[in-house]
From TrEMBL:
Residues 141-175 are annotated as: Disordered. It comes from Litchfieldella qijiaojingensis. This is PRC-barrel domain-containing protein. Keywords: Signal. Coiled coil: none annotated.
Length: 175
């Protein structure tokens, strides 16, 4: 009899946490400004199973303009041991913000890939870092060269237009 009351009491307590936790996890409207400190260590879930935690945010990767480019997710670890750190690029995740019962803001990250696709994402290591920096450098060089080329074409076009206008003005003076 005592065991039955203990089981019922435990079940009721667990149910109250589930209900209060669910009520507290109403997603908020976008904030417009976020603290990296509150996003680090946020729990990560797959969009296909919002109940199963697959990891936590380990790092936030920024570009030269300080825009977020990727998140580093520690996945598969037990008590902080083992697992692997993977890179999830923008467009493959979304951030959900909730207000907890105590008024604090909490975040969770929803990754929009399957479990198999998550396993195939690149591992965050020195090799990945070197390759990503090289790709970013190459993209910057291509952009810079394209911008210089566009500027040169614009300047040459403006010079030709000025010469044409000048010729027409002089031609009009001779008549």
């Amino acid at each position: 009899m005592r065991k039955t009351f203990l089981n019922i009491g435990t079940t009721l307590i667990a149910a109250s946490f589930a209900v209060s936790g669910h009520a507290a996890e109403e997603p908020q409207e976008p904030q417009g400004l976020y603290s990296a400190d509150t996003i680090l260590d946020a729990d990560v879930y797959l969009s296909s199973n919002l109940e199963e935690r697959v990891g936590e945010v380990e790092d936030i990767l920024l570009d030269d303009d300080m825009r977020v480019q990727s998140l580093v997710i520690e996945s598969g670890s037990t008590l902080g041991l083992g697992g692997r750190e993977i890179v999830v690029d923008n467009g493959n995740y979304r951030l959900e913000t909730v207000t907890e019962n105590d008024g604090d803001t909490a975040h969770r990250v929803i990754v929009d890939v399957s479990a198999a696709e998550l396993d195939e994402m690149p591992e965050y290591n020195a090799s990945w870092w070197d390759e990503a920096r090289q790709r970013a450098r190459e993209a910057w060089e291509a952009t810079r060269e394209g911008a210089e080329s566009a500027w040169q074409r614009t300047r040459e076009g403006a010079e030709r237009a000025a010469e044409t206008i000048d010729e027409r003005i002089r031609g009009g003076d001779e008549q």
